[in-house]
Structure prediction request, 1160 residues.
Amino acid sequence: MTAVQAALSGALIGGLYALMAAGLSVTWGTLRVINLAHFGLILVGAYLSYQLTSAWGIDPMLTLLVSAPALFVVGAGLQWAYDRFNIVEFNSLLVSFGLLMIIIEVSTQVWTADFRHIDAGANPYGTSALHLGPIALPVSRLVALGFALLLMGGGHLVLERTFAGRGLRAFAQDRTVAASFGIDHRRLGLVVGGLAGVSAAVAGMVFALGNTIAPAHAYEWFGTVFAVVILGGIGNLLGSLFAGLGVGAFSAVVAVLWDPSYEPFVLFLAIILALVLRPQGLFTRRAAA
Amino acid sequence: MLEVRGVDARYGDAQALWDVALDVGAAETVCIVGPNGAGKTTLVQTIAGLHRAAAGTITVAGVDVATLPGHRVCDHGVATVPEGRRVFGHMSVRDNLLLGAYRRPARAVHRETEARVYELFPRLKERSGQQAGSLSGGEQQMLALGRALMALPRLLLLDEPSLGLAPVIVDEVFDAIAAVNATGVSVLLVEQDVERALSAASRGYLLIEGRIVASGTTSELRSSADVRERVLGM
Amino acid sequence: MSVRKGLTSLVGVSLLLAVLAHFNTSLGVAPYLLVLATSVLFWVIQATSWNILSGYAGYFSFGQAAYVGIGAYAVAVLTGRHGVSYPVSIVVGGLLGALLALITGAIAFRLGSLRGEIFALLTLAVPFILAAFVRINRDIDGGLGTTLPLPAFPDWIGDFQHLIFLLMLAAATLAVGTALAVQRSRLGRGLSAIHDNEDAAEVLGVPTFRYKMIAIVLSGALGGLGGALLAVRNGAVQPELVFTLTVPLFVIVMAVLGGRRHWAGPVVGAAFVTVLQDELAAQKLDQWGNIILGGVLVVFVVAAPDGLFGRLRARPWLTVGVFVPVLAGLVLSGQYTELDALLYAMVAAIVVAVVVDRLRPVAASHPVPSRTTAAGTPPAVRTAPPPLSAPQPDSGRDLVAVAGLIRDFGGVRALDDVSLSVGQGEIVGLVGPNGSGKTTLVNLLSGALPPSAGTIAIDGRATVGLAPHKVAHTGVARTYQIPKPFASMTVLDNVAMAVMFGRTGASLPAARRAAADHLATVRLEHLAGQLPAALNLHQRQLLEMARAIAAEPVVLLLDEALAGLNPAEIDDAVAVIRRIHEGGISIIIVEHLLRVLNQLATRIVVLDRGVLIADGEPATVLNDPAVVRAYLGRQRA
Prediction:
C-alpha cells in the first residue's frame, strides 16, 4: 500500500516537473534555444503568485491573470533577443546561464534568500487533501497534475492539429523548406517564447501552492527537469508529460521501498541508461530519415 | 509569369550563377538542363527566395521578389519541390500536405485542394496517416509535389524530380507534372535526365558552369551541338 | 617558446611570488592582499581545470562544483572525521576528482548525437546529485558540515595564511603548468582540432575519445586538488558552499572573459574576476556580484567570444603602458587603496585594449597567434619531402578491396552489393547521378559510416568495425566536398595536424617542416601563415588535399574536390591531383565533370541507385549504353 501511495503522490509531483519541462522542451526542440533562464522565469512566476496573493488576498490561481501575461512578454522578449543575436544551441546555454544568474540575484534582492510561502489563510489548496480510501492525495499536487494535463495536452493538440503547430514542427525539421511555404520563424518564435513564459508562470504558481519558495530552488529543479526533457524526447510535450509522471513515481517508490538516500542515484542512473540506450528520448517515434 | 534578369548568386566567395536571364510564360513548362554542378539547384533556390541573389531581378507576375525574405516569396504564387524531396519525415503525410497550405489564401480552401491532390495521387490518400519518412522514394516525391500544390501555386519550381527513382516511378511523376501544367500552372523544371526534361517541356535553357549558354524550343536544344556534346556526351 | 622554457618561466614567477609573500610584512604588503591572492590562486586552479577540457576541446561543463566538492569532502571526511593526515587527504581529493571525471566522461563521450549539449546538461546534474547525496547521508558530515583542525606546519613558513598561500600557489603552478604543457603538446593540438571540427579530426587520425578522456581526467584531478585546498583554507565544509552554481558561473565567466584557447586566458580572467568580486564585497555591493558576472558572460558570449587575452597580447606594450601608470598614479595619489588601484588599472587596460581592437583590429582579428614559420621559413633548400610510400614492386596487390558492400539508411538501400578493387598507381573515377551512393561509398571507405554488410580491406587490412582514426592509420585519407578546415589554426598547422596524427606521426616542429612540403605540392606555400577564413574556395579545397596527403595515405579519396571551381581553377586542381598521384598515392575521385575524368582517370566506376553498373577503361565505360542511359539521360521507351 505504501508503495502505491508513494507512486501516486510521486506521479503527482511529476506533474509539476512536467510543467516545468514543457517550455524548455518546446523552445529547445523547435527553436534550438536551450533556455536555462526558463528556471528563472518559473522562480519569478512563483514569487509573483506569492506576492499578489499576500498583497491582495486573492485566490492564488487568479494571480495568473497578472503573471501569465507578464511572463509572456518576458519570454517573447528573450526569444527576440536570442534571435536578434543569433544565439542558438551552445551559446544559448551560456547566455541563458548568465541571464539565470541575474534573475536569481535580482529575485534574492527583491524577496530575500529566506523561505517564503503563501499564507495558509489565502491558500485554499495548501494543506487539504483528497482521500480515496486509504490513499491521500494533496490538492496542491492534483492542481499541478490538472494544469500539466491541460497545458501539455492542449499544447500537444496545438502542435498536432493547427496550422501554426504544423508550421512549427516543419520549421524544426527543415527551416529552408518550411520558409519556402511561408513560415515566418521570427513571428512563430516570439509566440513560442511567450507561451514558454506562460508555462513558467503556471509552473511557478503551482509550485508556490504546495511549497516554500527560495531563490536557490531554481538550481534544484535543474537535474530532474532536464532529465524529464531528455527522457520525454526534446520538443515532445506528451513525452515530457509521461516522463514527468514516470520520473516522479519512480523516485518516490525508490525512496519508500529502498532508502531516500538512493533516490538521486537511482534516478541519475536511470537517466544515463535511457540516454545511452535511447538518446533520442523514450517517447519519440523515430521514422526513417 | 516569371522573368529573371541579370541574376548572380554566390556562396561566400564562390560565385555559382553569372548574369542569368530566363522567362517562363503563363501555363508554360520550361526546363533547365545542364551537367551536375552547373548551378541548377542554386538557380531554383534563388528564384524561390531561399538563397539571396547577389544581383539582378526576379519578377513573378509583375512583382520583383528578389529582395523579399524567403517566407514571403510564396505569397506571390511560387511553390517549390526541392531537390531530394525533403518531406518532413517526422510528420504524417496529411500534415505534410496541410503544411503546404500554410499561407492564408491556401488555408481557406485547404479541404478542396487536399481532395484534388488525393485525386491526383490516390496513394497519398491511402497513406495519409503514415509518417512521411516511412514512404518509398516515389511516394515521397508525390508527397513533395502534392505539398507544393496545396500552396495553390501559379509557378511550380521542380528540382530534379527523377532523382534516385526507378524509371517506372519517374513516368508517373512526369505524368502528374503534365496534369498539373494542364490546369494552367507554369512549371520550371530542373532535371539531370535531359531526355525526359526535353520531352516534358516546350522550351528550355542550357546552364553550364553557372551561365545560360543556349536556349530555345526543346527540338532546337535537342539538335544543338552544345547540348549533345556537353550534356549528353555524344 | 618551447614547453620547457614556458614551464621554467612559470616556475620562476611562482618562486618569485612565494618569496614576495614570505616577506610581505617587511615589504609593506597588507595581509589582506595575501588573502586575496590566495583566492585568486584558487580560482586560477579552477578556471584552468575547467579550460583544459571545456576551453581547449569545446565541451562545456557546468559541473566544476562537483570536483571542488568531492575534493573538499575528501579532506573533510578523511582528515576532519577520521584523522587522516592532510597530505594524504589532499592527494585523495585530487584522485577522487579524477575518478569522478573518468566516470562522467566514460558515459558522456559515448553519446553520438547532440554530444556537446548533452554533455553540458549531464555535468549540470552531477553536483546536484552529489550535494543531495551528502545532505541525505548525514553520516558523511554529521548533517551540519564538518570543521577541520588547523594543520601543523614548520615555523619558518610564517602563519597559516602563508602556508595556505604556498599550497595554493603550488597547486596553481601545477595546474597552469599542466595547461601550458597540454596546449603545446600533441594532446593540445588534438583537442584544438576536436574543438574546430571533431569529425575531420577523427578522420585525420586524432584519437578523439581517448583525448577527451585524458582532458577530462586532468581537469577533474586539478579541480579536486583545488577543492581539497579550499577545505583546508576554510577550515569547514558544507554542501551549500561547495556544490554551488556560483562555481561554474565563476569559472565560465573567467575563461570566457580571459579567452579559452590559450592557457593564460583563464589566469587573466580569474585574476580580474576575483579582484572585482573582492572590491564589490569591500564596497558592500556583493549582492551585485553575480548580476555583474552574469551580464559579463552574456555580453562576452555575444560580442567577444574569443576573450580578452588575445586582445591584450596583440598589443602588450599598450596594455602594460596603460596598466602600470594608472596603477602607480592611483597608488601614489594616496586617495585609493591598493585594491581599488589594482582593479581600476585592470579595467583601464581592458577597456583600452577592447576599444583599440574595435577601432583598429590587428590583421587577423583572431586571437590565436600564428606561431608559424611563415616569416622564418628557411628558404629554398629544404630536405627532400618524406617518400610518399614509394611505388612498391608487387603492384598486383589490391590497396582497396571491397566485397559485397551494402549500406541501408532506414528503409532505403544506398549501396547494394558493391564490390570493387583498386590497385597501386590507379586513379579511379567514381561517377553516377546524384543520390547514386558515391558519397556513401566514400564514407564507408573512410570509416565514417559502418557498412550494413560486406567487407573492406585497405592495403590488406580489414577496416570494418575500426574507429575512423584507426581506419586512417591503415592508409586512407579523404577530402570533404565542403572543406572542413580547423578554423583556429593556420594553413600550415592544419596540414601539420595531419602529419602529427598520421600513420607515422611526428613532433610539431617536424610536422611543420613536412607540412610545408605538402603545401608546396598543392602550391599553397605562400598562404602558410594565414587562417583558413582568409582562403577562397579553391584554396580551401587545395588545403583539404594537402591535409589529406600529409597523413601519408596509400589511397586518397577525393569527394567532389572540384565542385564550384571555375575552368582555370579546375585545370590548376587537375595538375595538383596529378602531382599527388606521381608521389605514389592511388586515388579514388568522385567527380561530375567528365572532361576532368577523361584527363585523369585510369579507370571509371559507375554507380546507379546504389548498384555498380560499370567498371573499366574510361573510353569503354563512357560509351556503354547502360551507363549512357543511367548517367547521361534515359531514353524514353
